[in-house]
């Protein structure tokens, strides 16, 4: 538990490997991309949530690759809901953050934006390590049934496919660069 009364997320079992994969993908601190923004917009339309994020959890921060209804570009990992979510196998749901000891005294709950509901589906990289989440948040407690959970998971799978595609393209570019650098064969 932090000095402020909330529970900071633990690190993943293979944290250094996970971080190496995250950084190798070169997604952190990149410009907004329409393909990811379309997913956050679609998820907001389907579920009716005011906040939808695609997050990447770095060593000390959580960075938002795509954000709808959220002004922050990043926040400390210590207060991130997604830092907890990446420790889950697939999905984490917090129906009312005020009732959850991990979050009841979290500044994202006690101060603006006063998050009450959170559901996050883990987004994994091509090697299987959790990179972040596709998550939905609300200012009010909510119920999230099995159908909603399944849909959020399926949307997260689509985000994973985008990231896998990026990884493939990056590997091809690196391979071509290495071949050019080594000269003609």
Automatic annotation (TrEMBL):
GAF domain span: 31-174
Signal peptide: none
Lineage top rank: taxon: Bacteria
Pfam families: GAF
UniProt cross-references to InterPro entries, sorted A to Z: GAF, GAF-like_dom_sf
Designated name of the protein: GAF domain-containing protein
């Amino acid at each position: 538990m932090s000095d402020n009364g909330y529970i900071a997320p633990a690190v993943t079992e293979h944290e250094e490997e996970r971080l190496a994969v995250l950084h190798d993908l070169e997604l952190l601190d990149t410009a907004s991309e329409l393909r990811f923004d379309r997913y956050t917009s679609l998820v907001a339309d389907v579920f009716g949530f005011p906040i939808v994020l695609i997050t990447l959890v770095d060593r000390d921060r959580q960075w938002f690759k795509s954000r709808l209804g959220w002004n922050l570009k990043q926040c400390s990992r210590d207060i991130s809901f997604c830092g907890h979510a990446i420790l889950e196998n697939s999905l984490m749901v917090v129906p009312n953050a005020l009732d959850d000891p991990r979050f009841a005294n979290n500044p994202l709950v006690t101060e603006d934006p006063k998050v009450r509901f959170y559901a996050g589906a883990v987004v994994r990289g091509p090697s299987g390590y959790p990179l972040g989440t596709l998550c939905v948040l609300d200012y009010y407690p909510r119920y999230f049934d099995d159908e909603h959970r399944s849909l959020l998971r399926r949307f997260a799978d689509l985000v994973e496919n985008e990231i896998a595609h990026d990884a493939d393209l990056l590997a091809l570019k690196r391979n071509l660069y290495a071949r050019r650098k080594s000269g003609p064969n």
